[in-house]
Amino acid sequence: MRLENKVAIVTGGAQGLGKAFAEELLKKGAKVCICDLQAAEGRKVVKDWQQRFGRHSSMFVPCDVTDHDSFQNVFRTTKSRLGPIDIVVNNAGIGNEGDGWQRTIHINLIGVIEGTRLAVMYMSKEEGGKGGVVVNVASTAGLTPVFNTPVYAGSKYGVVGYTRSMAANPSIHEVGIRFTCLCPAYTDTTMFKSEKIDDLKKVDSNDPLVQMVMKAGVNTIEDVANGFMQLVETDNNNGGVMTVTKYKGIQYRHGKPLTNKL
Ligand SMILES: NC(=O)C1=CN([C@@H]2O[C@H](COP(=O)(O)OP(=O)(O)OC[C@H]3O[C@@H](n4cnc5c(N)ncnc54)[C@H](O)[C@@H]3O)[C@@H](O)[C@H]2O)C=CC1
Ligand SMILES: CC/C=C\C[C@H](O)C(=O)/C=C/C=C/C=C\C=C\[C@@H](O)C/C=C\CCC(=O)O
Questions:
Q1: Max CA-CA distance within the chain?
Q2: Which pTM does this prediction carry?
Q3: Cβ(235)–Cβ(262) below 8 Å
Q4: What is the pLDDT of residues 42-75, one digit of tens each?
Q5: What strands lie across the sheet with 177-184, from one edge to the other?
Q6: How far does residue 28's CA lie from ligand 1's centre (Å)?
Q7: Inter-residue contact 12 to 22 (CB < 8 Å)
Q8: From the CB of 12, is ligand 1 less than 6 Å away?
Q9: d(C-alpha 233, C-alpha 200), whole Å
Q10: What ipTM was assigned to the predicted interfaces of this complex?
C-alpha cells in the first residue's frame, strides 16, 4: 500500500507505540487522526506534527475506545475532516491485572473488536468504502502463556483469534480489507516500565519474570514501528500475524500469510 495521502486512525496515539506508529505514517505522507483518553497530551502531540507535517496532516479526537459513541465519533470526524479512511490501527491497551481487571478485557479486546467493526463500516467496499487495512495490536502475550499477566494474555489471545477469523472470511475480496495482527514482545514504553523489571532484577536476577524478559529481550519502540510499517505497506498479508522480538526480529507467525488473498 502506498501511503501518500492515505487516511489513518490510530487509537491510543498520545504516547508510546501508537504515537510512534502515527509519526511513521505521517513521514510517508499519510494523514493521521489519533484518539486517546489523554486529551491534553494528544493535542500537544498533534500541534507538533502540524508544525512539522502541515496544518492538515493530523488531528486529535478525545476518545475512550470502550465508549461506542465516543469511538464512532472518531471515525465520523476523521472522514469529514481528512477524507475516506484507509488504515485503522487498534493500538490502545492497558495491563491491569488487579481490581478493575475487567477493564483490561474491555479496552484490549472489546475495544479492538469495536474498532474493527467500525473499520468495516467505514472502509468495506460492500459499504461504499475503498477497502484498506486494519492493524490490531496484540502482543506475543497473545501467542504464548505469560504467567504473571493472565488477564492481559487472555485479552491478547482474543485479539489474535478474532483478527485471524475476520481475515478468514471467504468473501474478504468483496470487503477489500486486510486484517492483520502485530505481536511485539516486551517494548520499552510506559506500559513496560510499569512492570518494574529493573527493580526486580536488583532483588533477584533469577526471578521467573526477570528470566522471561531476559529471554525475550526488550524491543525499542523503533523496532516495533519498523514491523508495523512492513505490516501496513505489504499488500498480500491478509491474516498476517507479525511478531517483533529482540532475539528473532520481525517474523510472520504461521508462515507468510496468504489467507484468502485479496
Ligand atoms: N510496551 C510493551 O511491552 C508492549 C505493548 N503492547 C501493546 O501495544 C499497545 C500500546 O502499548 P504501549 O504504547 O506500550 O502503552 P502506553 O501505556 O505507553 O500507551 C497506551 C496508550 O493508550 C491509551 N489508552 C488506554 N486506554 C484507552 C482507552 N480506553 N481509550 C483510548 N485510549 C486509551 C493511553 O492513554 C496511552 O496513551 C497496547 O495495546 C499494548 O498492549 C504489546 C506488546 C508489548
Ligand atoms: C501488564 C502488562 C505489561 C506489559 C506487558 C507487555 O505490554 C507485553 O505485551 C508483554 C509481552 C510478553 C511476552 C512474554 C513472552 C515472550 C516470549 C518471546 O520469547 C516470544 C514469544 C513468542 C513469539 C515467537 C513465536 O512463538 O512466534
A1: 58
A2: 0.96
A3: yes
A4: 999 999 999 999 999 999 999 999 999 999 999 9
A5: 58-62, 31-36, 7-11, 87-90, 132-137, 177-184, 241-245, 249-253
A6: 23
A7: no
A8: yes
A9: 39
A10: 0.95
